[in-house]
Amino acid sequence: MIIVMNATATTEDIQAVVERLTERGFDIHKSTGAQHTVLGVVGGSVAVDARDYELLPGVGEVIRISEPYKLVGRLFRKEDTVIDVRGVKIGGNEIVLMAGPCSIESRSQIFESAKFVKEAGGKILRGGAFKPRSSPYSFQGMGIEGLKHMREAADEYGLIVISEIMDKSELPTALKYIDIIQVGARNMQNYTLLRELGNMPKPVLLKRGMSATIKELLMSAEYIMAGGNHEVMLCERGIRTFENYTRNTMDISAIPILKSLSHLPVIADPSHGTGIRDKVAPMARASVAAGADGLLIEAHQDPDNALSDGAQSLYPEQLNDLMKQLRIISQAVDRTIAPESQKVTVG
Ligand code: PEP
Ligand code: MN
């Protein structure tokens, strides 16, 4: 149930409604919009009668929601959610580039990555330390040591860190080094992990599972939000279909659909979405045209020798060229994107 308070409702009116609901065992999530405060009412074991609340002072409207997702939906929050990660705003007018290698491979590799990502106009450095590989014999990532290198590299170049966590046991240490926690496609329905992240004051990028529907993706985001963590980004990274020319089928249509159903920022990952280097830029361009709030792109200084996903990683110059094109496309859809930085020299 959603309770929309009147524009004239006082703090006391809102408090009284919240108290009445909490006494009856409901969890209340408050969203303060430009005009109205909206209360998302979830949980509780007693049946609710909307009339009990409609007549309370300050209440404008009580809406029953038939969709299974409540907090992620546009009814709960009309305005787009903008997540501020240490000054970088995700979900606002500016499209944000998150880029870097699939895996952190060494200290020098991640420092070089940070440099070319910054120069291309990226704001966020990606790199996996805990890798969900399909084979147990493939490189599994550098773990915490890798995260320490990435943190240092990001700090040196003024970037923010996004990295994947696969298990809740990794969280306490990893949280010291990561700004945005990535939940990978294979973990989209790991509800124990999602619940844990719901109690965390850290933004989460939630990837769509490879066989997940849009509704299932939204329900997984609801798990995180229901725990109290409202800083969730949704990521389209391709789904498994009968087509096997590409590694996955990049579902561009999911972008405008998610944007209309949910207020959460939508990020596109054309690297895993296609698995083919020369298809990454066209899908990135399409994603921006379709309304994505950001891009998550794999890039490597020496993709031919990368320890994972080299075949879908851009060369630094390709990342730079792509950003030049995105500057033109973003203008056409009334968005902005960071300008190219000057050559960066540090230290
Ligand atoms: C990754 O980002 O490197 C990754 C493993 O992604 P996904 O979970 O989408 O496969
Ligand atoms: Mn990868």
Topology of this protein?
Layout: E1 2-5, H1 11-23, E2 26-32, E3 37-43, H2 51-54, E4 59-63, E5 83-85, E6 88-90, E7 94-100, H3 107-120, E8 124-126, H4 144-157, E9 160-164, H5 171-174, E10 180-183, H6 191-198, E11 204-207, H7 214-226, E12 232-236, H8 254-261, E13 266-268, H9 270-274, H10 277-290, E14 294-298, H11 316-332, E15 336-337
Parallel strand pairs: 7-8, 7-14, 7-15, 8-9, 9-10, 10-11, 11-12, 12-13, 13-14
Antiparallel strand pairs: 1-3, 1-4, 2-3, 5-6
Structural notes for this entry:
By secondary structure, this protein is of the alpha/beta class. It has 2 domains: 62 residues, Alpha-Beta Plaits (2-Layer Sandwich); 255 residues, Aldolase class I (TIM Barrel, Alpha-Beta Barrel). The strands form 3 sheets. Strands 7-8-9-10-11-12-13-14 form an 8-stranded parallel barrel, surrounded by 5 helices. It has a 4-stranded antiparallel sheet with strand order 2-3-1-4. Helix 6 links the parallel strand 10 and strand 11. The radius of gyration is 21 Å and the shape is elongated. The site of manganese (II) ion (MN) has 5 residues, from loops.
